[in-house]
Amino acid sequence: MTSALTRRRSPRRWAAVAAAVLLILTGAVTAVLRAPSAQALENGVARTPPMGWNSWNTFGCNINESLIRGMADAIVSSGLRDLGYQYVVVDDCWFNPNRDSSGNLQGDPSRFPSGMKALGDYLHGKGLKFGIYEAPLDKTCGQYFGSYPGATGSGGHETQDARQFAAWGVDYLKYDWCSPTGSINDQVTVFSRMRDALAATGRPIVYSINTNSVHAKTGPQRNWGDVANLWRTTEDIQNMWNGGQVNNYPMGVQNIVDVTVPLAGYAGPGHFNDPDMLEVGRGGGMNDTEMRSHFALWAMLAAPLLAGNDVRSMNAATKTILGNRNLIAIDQDSLGLQAIQVSNDGTRRVLAKRLANGDVAVALFNQGGSTTTVSTTAAAVGKAGSSFTLLDAWSGAVTSSSGPISASVPAHGTVVYRVSGGTTGGTTSPPPSNGATTLVSAASGRCLDVPNSNTANGTQPVIWDCNGQANQRWTASGPTLQALGKCLDAPLGATAGSKVQLWDCNGGTNQQWTFNANGTVSGAASGLCLDVNGNATANGTTVLLWTCSAAANQRWTRA
């Protein structure tokens, strides 16, 4: 964890002068904290998360025309196409290692002898859509790691390659950084070139990017919705439950969920977090319970559902999971919301996702190693009333409840209920927990706010006009205060003047808070109080830790 950041205050007798200076500077500070968010990419596609199949997880570089056509046939005959699995994405190693004399990309003549346009035509003739892979620098991942020859990345060829893709009838482009070079700003610039080149073709093409390959994990660091329709949040998924990593190889399902849950505010129609392709049906890594959880959690996360198994040889369990209409409906809900975290005690985790018809999908997720009961309430997930209907997404069983939502869940299992009845609150998603509240500063009447819904560790809260959004809703979960899936945290060894910040919840005393009778909120580890910096009242003023005085800028009302 980062060390405490401290600053000396002006003496209180200079408070009026300091406040005046702060008011002068507020415009600049606010511009930084509240710069208008970049507009989401509006290219008319991916209004719900794309569904389909990708060649990489099972076949890697071992692909050819016959394989892809056979897989397309199986997607149709198995009924997956009619359930929404439309995109057939040909991943790395499809190309001739050399461009032609005009600099155009070509399919590998030994692997795709009929050519890429013919393949696209075949897929379209089956009622499917054509996806393809490329990279934005000089090499694709296969070329970077030496598993495929050549250097045919799109760097410097963006306009030419986009036109080529459009001419071939491509409907989906997976664009993979795969290089240790470049800052996050470089990535934004380079990825945006292909975004603009695709738009210039006039063909609607889903644009899916991965900023993380062989690179710092920039996927979770910003909302990429202004650049792409889909952006990978983590390193590549592996066929495993837990790789013990934060965001590095190997990434299992549990690890990816941990990274992606806090990013809920980024998702919406046309722009979705991408926790990577499905491992469902690939033997040897996870048991059926874990595979079911994998699929259920991806549906709750409004994730693209791109199967990665050999569709030609699916067993009954795989067909049941990939074909679950209840979960597909949750994933494909027209609101396009990603579930937010209601509670998490380290073992029992609850996620909730508001749906277009007023229902709420609730996932009861057992992260532990033995069966346990996972519970929440209708009120906690944003439902008001006294009579509710619960549809079990797996069994199809329907039960009634006056409010409790509970199930016995096996190790690594996930029970999903679709909760209907009552009324649904919230403007964008359900309140994150029973006890969700806003914290209103007595001095200004403004709310404790996570600026721009930034969930990066170390983000410093501010005060801002109260608006009821998720970045101003705080969950009192035991002694912790949580917003957007992160905990309010005092840096280790914090002293007066240290910033208060968001951080991954870890159960430490530096993340435990007490609501005092005088309206102050004090930290268990530091004994210091949440304080609006410099007694200022303007939007964007930071909140930090200071010696408790019960002054108005340290008093908070829960609303």
Write a brief caption for the model.
The chain is of the alpha+beta class and 559 residues long.
What is the topological layout?
Elements: H1 15-33, E1 51-54, H2 56-59, H3 65-77, H4 80-83, E2 87-90, H5 116-125, E3 129-134, H6 141-144, H7 158-168, E4 172-176, H8 184-201, E5 206-210, E6 230-232, H9 253-260, E7 272-274, H10 288-300, E8 305-307, H11 316-322, H12 325-331, E9 340-344, E10 348-354, E11 360-366, E12 372-377, E13 383-384, E14 388-392, E15 398-401, E16 404-409, E17 414-420, E18 423-424, E19 436-437, E20 439-441, E21 447-449, E22 462-464, E23 474-477, E24 480-483, E25 486-489, E26 501-503, E27 513-515, E28 521-523, E29 529-532, E30 543-546, E31 556-558
Parallel strand pairs: 1-2, 1-8, 2-3, 3-4, 4-5, 5-6, 6-7
Antiparallel strand pairs: 9-10, 10-11, 11-17, 12-16, 13-18, 14-15, 14-17, 19-23, 20-31, 21-22, 23-24, 24-25, 25-26, 27-28, 29-30
Helix pairs in contact: 7-8, 10-11, 10-12
